[in-house]
Amino acid sequence: MSSLAQNIISAIHDVVGIEPVSLHEPRFPGNESKYVQECLDSTYVSSVGKFVDHFEEELVNFTGAKYVIAVVNGTAALHMSLLLAGVENSDEVLIPALTFVATANAIRYCGAVPHFVDSEESTLGVDPCALREYLKSITEQHSGFCINRRTKRRIRALVPVHIFGHPCRLEEIMAVTRDFNLVLIEDAAESLGSLYQGQHTGTFGLFGTLSFNGNKTITTGGGGAILTDDSELAKRARHLTTTAKLQHRWEYLHDEVGFNYRLPNLNAALGYAQMECLSEFLASKRRLFERYRDAFLDVPQVRLFMEPDFCRSNYWLQTLLMDESISDQRDVVLEDTNDADLMTRPAWTLMHRLEPYRDFPSMQLPVAKSLASRIINIPSSSGLA
Ligand SMILES: *Cc1c(COP(=O)(O)O)cnc(C)c1O
Fold it and tell me: Residue 196 — φ and ψ, nearest 5°?
């Protein structure tokens, strides 16, 4: 085994012990069973019930968003947000090439075109300076819209992603969306509990979206949420995600093509209990980060990613960055750590390299390419601290 892999394995063992560990496990230490049982006893397991309201209220209180609409998953939350933001067939939407595939998929569900942008090493998110220069060179403004001069299509929105829970540079990103007439939608699927200058991520754009998949900071089994401060859009989101059904005592009247995207009460019962544990989860994840930080201090050629000083990260997934000079050893490290029953993973394959996303517009991606070749996520469950 290479000494690099050996050093990494010892550092992880120092923190988590020598038992096999997975990358991210859900935990149910609170009232999960109690509320789920209560939900079953009520028979309201589906789209109607008090737990959906309770869960949404807790998310409003925690994030500071004015309105929260709970939905079936984070991808559906993105899809709805894009539609309600006015993204139409053939519009382009800017997203980082370094993200989970759901961000790109939701854009395709609207018939729109993902347009890939580069990332920066200090946040792992969209690089606002490089993006501004790029947009200056390829776009022009036309009747209040940003037009891609090369493709003649309208660039409607920017969807930055808070990668592994680390907030991206929102102030500079908002200046870009303002200057180029773009709608801002934050993919905050990974950043529940992460703050940018003291304000919760996902509350800066027209919409923000959360995910409560099994591997996220809290889980509802599957689930997601739309955050917005706009009361009209919140009303529209509720309507569209519940088959666009009009209120009536017995008639089935639907005034547009709606979606069956509302979060079931059964899942919300789980989510309501998980919200009671969230502060403890976040404290544990920060403790885990601190332990890893100490353990990796003396490991040469790798560093543990640390939150930038303008934000507070939830440390959803702990991230090792290998030095550029040794990125060719990444796969060996992945193999050796997984052989040692320590679950580690690379960053996602960059979007423009995936079969369904090969032929879409993209800026040069030097930093995203470099990061994708050097990132290794290590075991991150809050239970490990
Ligand atoms: C998890 C995730 C999503 C999608 O969430 P689902 O609930 O799995 O649909 C979207 N974007 C990012 C960046 C994610 O990590």
Answer: -115, 120
The Cα 241–Cα 261 span in angstroms is: 5
Per-residue pLDDT tens over the stretch 112-130:
999 999 999 999 999 999 9
Question: How many angstroms is it from 141 CA to the middle of ligand 1?
Answer: 32
Residue nearest to atom 14 of ligand 1 (CA): 189
Indicate the pTM of the whole model: 0.97
Alpha helix stretches (DSSP H) within 17-44: 32-42
Distance of CA 61 from the midpoint of ligand 1 (Å): 22
d(CA 87, CA 156): 6
Measure CA 172 to chain center: 19
3-state secondary structure 315-336: CCCEEEEECHHHHHHHHHHHHH
CA–centroid distance, 26 to ligand 1, in Å, is 16
Tokens of 309: 């000083």
Residue nearest to atom 10 of ligand 1 (CA): 102
Q: 32-276 sits in which CATH class?
A: alpha beta
Ligand 1 neighbours (beta carbon < 6 A) = 73-75, 99-100, 102-103, 161, 187, 189-190, 211, 213, 224
Rounded Cα distance, 160 and 125, in Å: 7
Q: Which residue has the tokens 């789920």?
A: 36
pLDDT in tens, 255-290: 999 999 999 999 999 999 999 999 999 999 999 999
Within the chain, which residue ranges are assigned CATH 3.40.640.10?
32-276
* Residue 24 CA, ligand 1 centroid: distance in Å: 14
